[in-house]
Design brief:
The protein has seven helices and eight strands, in the order βαβαβαβαββαβαβα. The chain is α/β, with parallel strands linked by helices. It has a single domain, classed as TIM Barrel. An eight-stranded parallel beta sheet has the order 1-8-7-6-5-4-3-2. α1 packs parallel to α7 and α2 runs parallel beside α3. The protein is globular.
Length: 223
C-alpha cells in the first residue's frame, strides 16, 4: 500500500437512513473502500443505533466489504447472527467481553475478519494478547457512542505505539481509526501508521455529494 493509499470507509451512522441505498450507491461510485456499521446497545455506550436488519440491508445494497463495529456488552452472543447478516469483518471491544480470546476465535470461525478495539482511556497493552489472532485493531479517536465528535489528538501517539506492537509480531494487521477523521486530520492519522479510517460526517454531511467529500480527503492525503 502506498503512503496515500489508506482505505476509507464511510460510517452509515451519519447517513440519511430514509435514502440509505442511494447513499451507499453514491459512496461506492465515489470510490470508498468499504462500509462501516456501528452497533450500539445503550448499555456499553449511552446511545442506541441500529441492528441486524440494517446490516442485512447494507449487505444487499453494496458489493463493498461490510465492516461492523460492536459497541455492546457480551458481543459473543451475536457473532453468528452478524455473520449471517452479511458482515465481512466484526470488531469487538476489549472492555465489553469477559472472554476476548474466545470471542475473536468465534468471529474467525464464523468466516469474518476478527477485529478488536478499545476506548481512548484503555491501555494499549490490553490488545497485545490477541494480536496473534486478529486481522485489525481499531483505535477509537473519540469516546464511542455518538457521531460528529472532534478528534482526540492523543490518538496519534496511540496509533504509533500500536504500529510498533504490530511490527513486533511480524503479522499483517490493519490499523483502523474511527472518530473525527476528516480532511484536517486524515493525513496525520495516515502518517502515524493507520491503514484504514472510518469517516462519518466528512462524507455523509447532508450538504454536499459524497464524491466531493472524497475529493477533499484525497487532496488532504496528497498534501
Amino acid at each position: 500500500m502506498s503512503q496515500s493509499a489508506i482505505l476509507i470507509g464511510p460510517s452509515i451512522l451519519t447517513a440519511d437512513f430514509l435514502h440509505l441505498g442511494d447513499q451507499l450507491a453514491e459512496a461506492e461510485a465515489a470510490g470508498v473502500d468499504y462500509v462501516h456499521v456501528d452497533i450500539m446497545d445503550g448499555l456499553f455506550v449511552p446511545n442506541i443505533s441500529i441492528g441486524l436488519p440494517i446490516v442485512a440491508a447494507v449487505r444487499r445494497a453494496t458489493k463493498l466489504p461490510v465492516d461492523v463495529h460492536l459497541m455492546m456488552v457480551d458481543p459473543e452472543r451475536y457473532v453468528d447472527a452478524f455473520a449471517a447478516a452479511g458482515a465481512d469483518s466484526l470488531t469487538v471491544h476489549v472492555e465489553a467481553t469477559r472472554h476476548l480470546y474466545r470471542t475473536i476465535q468465534a468471529i474467525a470461525a464464523a468466516g469474518m475478519t476478527p477485529g478488536v478495539t478499545l476506548n481512548p482511556g484503555t491501555p494499549l497493552l490490553t490488545v497485545e494478547p490477541v494480536l496473534p489472532i486478529v486481522g485489525q485493531v481499531l483505535v477509537m479517536s473519540v469516546n464511542p457512542g455518538f457521531g460528529g465528535q472532534s478528534f482526540i489528538p492523543a490518538a496519534l501517539d496511540r496509533i504509533r505505539r500500536l504500529a510498533e506492537m504490530i511490527d513486533a509480531t511480524g503479522r499483517e494487521i490493519a490499523i483502523q481509526v474511527d472518530g473525527g477523521v476528516n480532511a484536517a486530520t486524515i493525513a496525520a492519522v495516515r502518517d502515524a501508521g493507520a491503514t484504514k479510517v472510518v469517516v462519518g460526517s466528512a462524507l455523509f454531511d447532508g450538504a454536499s455529494p459524497v464524491a466531493a467529500g472524497m475529493d477533499r480527503l484525497r487532496a488532504a492525503l496528497a498534501g
